[in-house]
Amino acid sequence: MSAYIHDNAAWSQAKPTISVLIPFLRDDPQALLRRLDTEAAALAGAVELILLDDGTADTDLTTRIQATLDALELPVRLISLVANEGRARGRNRLTTAARGEAYLFLDSDMRPDTPVFLQTWLRLFAQDAPAVAFGGFSLDQAPTDARFAVHRALSGASECLPASQRALTPEKYVYTSNLLVRRDVFAAESFDPGFSGWGWEDVEWAMRVSRRFPVIHIDNPATHMGLDTVEDLARKFDQGAGNFARVVALHPAIVQTYPSYKAARALKRLPALPLARRLMKQAALTTVLPVKARAFALRLYRAAVYADAV
């Protein structure tokens, strides 16, 4: 058997409008589940939660999560995979278990910023049934440890933006961290399983979808709790280089307008790029430097990694 299913008592009788789809790998989603469940009475069965454990293979964690699910009022299903499928395939699989007319993709390390987070999504869908809507995210509840300062600086400057600003380039600011997608839209455009590892599968999906359907932005944010150290971010950038190359190949006209692409093209001409990359990473890791300088060095490092793809 490739997957194990666990449903709570509320699952079988629910007739949801929105299915909240939460993938995780070695993370513990229980804090998010309990937060979402505070809205259960107001939702009256209109929202279900579906979790995908993408191959964690931790029986103790699974047992604890199942116990939490059984205590929730919201209808919940847990799908536990024996082997990891990856971000794109995993999210596609989640939709096959969903019964709602819309999917709300929500990362397991997110925390809603308001007590009416799900109600806001439900009200929007009841009124407008948008094809695609992104709610935004913040750092309001995120840890303030010094080791995460560079990630806070990067995310705050480029991702934690109000809806009015995101709407200027709607396809660029679409992440599966807090994303509502109508069922028929996802049936027409699912995530590309050719992406593996970290990054870009949601951005590429948005590029495809925005050609056929309107993408709107609203201010219904959740906090990204899972900040990374510089070392972890650099590792993710390394892992994401192949995915960036895939996006460049699939959507060259769009990607060529991105600052990250332009920087990568410029750095590609450096005669000693491998050495420059090491120096950029070292600068980002140097804690005596100002945080803004370290964040700038890390952005340069990402562009230098992506230079191999352009």
Automatic annotation (TrEMBL):
It holds the Pfam family Glycos_transf_2. GO terms for molecular function: transferase activity. InterPro entries: Glyco_trans_2-like (IPR001173), Nucleotide-diphossugar_trans (IPR029044). Keywords: Transferase. It comes from the Bacteria. Residues 19-185 form the Glycosyltransferase 2-like domain. PANTHER family: RHAMNOSYLTRANSFERASE WBBL (PTHR43179:SF7). This is Glycosyltransferase.
